[in-house]
Amino acid sequence: MSVRANKDTFESEINEAGKLVIADFYSDSCVPCKRMSPLLAETEEENPEGIKLVKLNITFDGETAQKYNVTSVPTLVFFKDGAEKARLTGAVKKAQLAETINSID
Fold it and tell me: Which of 41, 62, 64, 90 is deepest in the core (most CB within 10 A)?
């Protein structure tokens, strides 16, 4: 189940996960973000032991988005052991999401 993070909790959510974290930087007014949401939830449900989904609304936490150089939404940042391993920007298909996940060791 996804975790809603904010500027106070984001760092601990990605650093203490112990598994691959997909950070979903989104906005409520972003139509592509809304399309990505069910795909991300499904991906997390299919890999409960291996993936944690952390969602950050840039409307309320723009400072955190800036810190991670997020300039458009949706942006997915993949973290492992607290380090950024990959990044996807814009709406993506499930195959591209799976390919990115599988490319991270």
Answer: 64
